[in-house]
Amino acid sequence: MPPRVIPSNAFHWKLSKRAMKLSQLELCVSADTRQKVPTGDSVMRAAVAMVFRPGKRSALELLMIHRAEHPKDPWSGHMAFPGGRIDPGDASARDGAMREVQEELSLDLKNAKLIGEVEPLTVPPRVLETEMWVQAFVFYAEDLPPTTPNMEVQAVHWFDFSRFNSGEGRGEFHYHGHGYDLMLPEVHLDGCRIWGMSLRLIDDLVGRLQ
């Protein structure tokens, strides 16, 4: 049987004022992706984990990190998902994402449920000298222990996912950097500014649900 691939926007639940349920997340996240990540020495690969848990006031909460400031990090100080470059010793991109979560947050996802994968993204040209693809794996876990961030993480946040569905805090800002001069979307929640590739991954999920 071929892997299940579900196109974006295949489902049309009206979730603007309702919390997303685990069953809906399972239906709209694919076991495989339409876009295949290229291999080869000229391509860098990274993987991140989009970790959901049962919410206190909503059905699902999404884990994000506030990256530490570092002059050599292109995403220094950004809101992001835990993850990083895939190492040669990683058995798969998924294992690389799980290893990074363990290293950055001391959070073991071995017993978490792997829901699937959203469409991979490429880092925009000129941000890095080498082409990089980022794969994002969606996990669901209950009874997670408290996180213990390492030096790469300055804060950990859990966001009620219905806030992204509702459009709360959404706007645009003028981005000027890496040779770009354009308007980009952003979301402000609890004093955090979410934009760039992290917001693109979130919007992928939101688009599948609306």
CATH top level class name:
Alpha Beta
How many beta-strand segments?
A: 10
CATH superfamily: Nucleoside Triphosphate Pyrophosphohydrolase
Low-confidence stretches: 1-17
Beta content comes to: 35-45%
Q: Keywords, please?
A:
Nucleoside Triphosphate Pyrophosphohydrolase; 19% helix; 210 residues; 36% strand; 7-stranded mixed sheet; 3-stranded antiparallel sheet; disordered N terminus; alpha+beta
Describe the overall structure.
The chain has one domain: Nucleoside Triphosphate Pyrophosphohydrolase, CATH 3.90.79. The chain is built from four helices and ten strands; from the N terminus they run αββββαβββαβββα. Strands 1, 2, 3, 4, 5, 6 and 7 form a seven-stranded mixed sheet that branches.
Short structural description:
The protein has 210 residues and is α+β, with helices and mostly antiparallel strands. The protein is built from four helices and ten strands. The strands form two sheets. Strands 1, 2, 3, 4, 5, 6 and 7 form a seven-stranded mixed sheet that branches. Strands 8-9-10 form a three-stranded antiparallel sheet.
